[in-house]
């Protein structure tokens, strides 16, 4: 029997609540498989920082490295809580994990869900959205390079250096082509290569070169500004988008917004070489305003768990979870979800998996 | 009598066609004023490059500097025309003008227009959009700083340096606050200061400082990724957005997309110190596919001309043009525009101004 050791980082606010449901669903999905999950909980996030003053220690990182995957909830303090310095949890913990565990592929699928109305008139059940963004996760403008000179004076200069390497771009583009090949065989490179000519040259040249190994995948290029127009006017045209860290950040907020499913968006931060565990997390935040009320929607965490199953080679279990979620969302689209608690929602997915 | 010398750069494709209508409308709008425009045409763009090999010479720049304003059409070759190196006209001519003429404020208003259906379900005549983006135009990631090391090898590195100065940020933020004060007194700073900490610090600090001189303007901060969500879910919340060159580029394609009016979007590239002429251009491109057919819509060029009137201190004439456009668009929303030529549309605006 296959045993996977999963690190669980519930985090802050609704994070632990939705992750608990994801675990229930994982266990139900695994029942028919000869595989088993063991879970170890890690206390990390804003609350943890408030009590310990630590965001992510070397010891914790070391311990996390021993796991097969990380199931993540959400982190972040109440924005009104001025004790937590702005951005520190995001940078030191979230980005700390991505960079230290070499999560080069930040995978963010976007699709239409039953009962979820898109804010776009052109998106409906007959014209659904279904694409994935493969966002680079370990370099680009996120590298943290840059500086401030003469801070606070009239002569102040601030720089930010986007760092892009052939090594870093190629592995992400290869991953994106591989995913496109398994989907609708259409890849779109998004960049701004008419202005950012150095990095744009590297991205465009790399994509052109990698494309040769994927002759059955057609690919096109789109400027990031134009990509936002297409997302609004014809999001159905996208299958797989590959892009850099910052453009990917922007497009993967726009993408779930146009599907109407920001609350449902799942993501995976993948170490493609398998040298460290990959991480699976809902895109939504810790939502301190509804924390502790048992009303958070665990669907995004459950869908993130499905991405984890898929990543661990348990594709059939992943497919079962996705099917259960789709079926249950359809049901709820008819019945409504008013009054349903977080765990009742999780139980409903479990019931579908067990039936 | 006040005479303004206007440089006219029609450019490529439909550019000269729509600019011709803008001129007609300008002259009609000026009739009641003690002001007059003289026009000098400059041949610039992809066609010009093909015949001369020049994008923007020092002589042309010098001549342009002598004008009170520049009325611009559109530039760019047919994308299928492989004779024109990709990006050269955009960089050397468009960005060349912005940087050389110190167009620090790139102003892009977005609003709902009668008869123009937004792709968003939440935007309609009862819930219209009306905001402006003040995009920085002369620094940031557009500075052209960066480089490629070991090009074409596995060890290649490409960098892009975003350059931000107190000088450059402050003048744009001041301009944005001034505009907010004259509108709904609400300014939103858009950045990504949790990740781009150096430039984010400069932008946030500058905005906080400038805000003190505008106590009647309330302001808030939004990450660029979150801004895309708000644009889709609640664009009515925005009044004035101030942001950097690259974020502004992205948001000002998204903005007209959500209003439904990409074809109607106007823009101004403003030298706030008055040391060189400002430039007024429609956001749409040269549309080579419909060039020469006399079917291009001149509305965006006409609205850009209205921005020029306003900039030149001819606010009443500007208001008349805007009112004429709105009235005529309402009319067309009922009658339809099928079969109307470019000049018939221009004539309709002129008729409204003259009646
Ligand atoms: C919280 C922030 C650092 C993060 C990012 O910018 O990557 C978030 O926006 C995301 O997309 O995961
Ligand atoms: C053509 C290009 C260089 C330009 C820009 O990126 O600024 C365009 O997208 C714009 O927004 O005016």
Automatic annotation (TrEMBL), chains A, B:
<dbReference type="Pfam" id="PF00180">
    <property type="entry name" value="Iso_dh"/>
</dbReference>
<dbReference type="InterPro" id="IPR024084">
    <property type="entry name" value="IsoPropMal-DH-like_dom"/>
</dbReference>
<dbReference type="InterPro" id="IPR050501">
    <property type="entry name" value="ICDH/IPMDH"/>
</dbReference>
<protein>
    <submittedName>
        <fullName>3-isopropylmalate dehydrogenase</fullName>
        <ecNumber>1.1.1.85</ecNumber>
    </submittedName>
</protein>
<keyword id="KW-0560">Oxidoreductase</keyword>
<keyword id="KW-0479">Metal-binding</keyword>
<keyword id="KW-0520">NAD</keyword>
<feature type="domain" description="Isopropylmalate dehydrogenase-like">
    <location>
        <begin position="5"/>
        <end position="349"/>
    </location>
</feature>
<keyword id="KW-0464">Manganese</keyword>
<dbReference type="GO" id="GO:0003862">
    <property type="term" value="F:3-isopropylmalate dehydrogenase activity"/>
</dbReference>
<dbReference type="InterPro" id="IPR019818">
    <property type="entry name" value="IsoCit/isopropylmalate_DH_CS"/>
</dbReference>
């Amino acid at each position: 029997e296959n045993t996977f050791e999963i690190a669980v980082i519930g985090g802050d606010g609704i994070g632990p609540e939705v992750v608990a449901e994801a675990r229930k669903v994982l266990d139900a999905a695994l029942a028919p498989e000869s595989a088993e999950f063991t879970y170890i909980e890690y206390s990390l996030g804003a609350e943890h920082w408030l009590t310990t003053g630590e965001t992510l220690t070397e010891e914790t990182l070391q311990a996390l490295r021993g796991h097969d995957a990380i199931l993540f909830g959400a982190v972040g303090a109440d924005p009104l809580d001025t004790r937590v310095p702005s951005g520190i949890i995001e940078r030191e913990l979230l980005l700390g994990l991505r960079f230290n565990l070499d999560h080069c592929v930040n995978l963010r699928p976007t699709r239409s869900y039953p009962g979820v109305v898109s804010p776009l008139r052109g998106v409906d059940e007959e014209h659904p959205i279904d694409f994935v963004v493969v966002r680079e996760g370990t370099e680009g403008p996120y590298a943290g390079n840059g500086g401030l000179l003469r801070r606070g004076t009239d002569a102040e200069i601030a720089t930010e250096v986007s760092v892009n390497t052939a090594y870093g771009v190629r592995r992400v583009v290869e991953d994106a082509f591989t995913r496109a090949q398994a989907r609708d065989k259409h890849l779109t490179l998004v960049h701004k290569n008419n202005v950012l000519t150095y990095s744009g040259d590297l991205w465009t040249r790399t994509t052109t070169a990698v494309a040769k190994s994927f002759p059955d995948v057609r690919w096109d290029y789109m400027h990031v500004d134009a990509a936002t127009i297409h997302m609004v006017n014809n999001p159905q045209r996208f299958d797989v988008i590959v892009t850099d860290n910052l453009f990917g950040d922007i497009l993967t907020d726009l993408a779930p917004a146009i599907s109407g499913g920001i609350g449902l968006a799942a993501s995976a931060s993948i170490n493609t070489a398998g040298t460290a565990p990959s991480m699976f997390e809902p895109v939504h935040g810790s939502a301190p305003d509804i924390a502790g009320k048992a009303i958070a929607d665990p669907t995004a965490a459950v869908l993130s768990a499905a991405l984890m199953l898929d990543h661990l080679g348990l594709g059939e279990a992943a497919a079962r979870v996705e099917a259960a979620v789709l079926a249950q969302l359809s049901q709820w689209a008819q019945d409504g979800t008013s009054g349903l608690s977080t765990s009742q929602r999780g139980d409903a997915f479990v019931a579908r998996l067990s039936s």
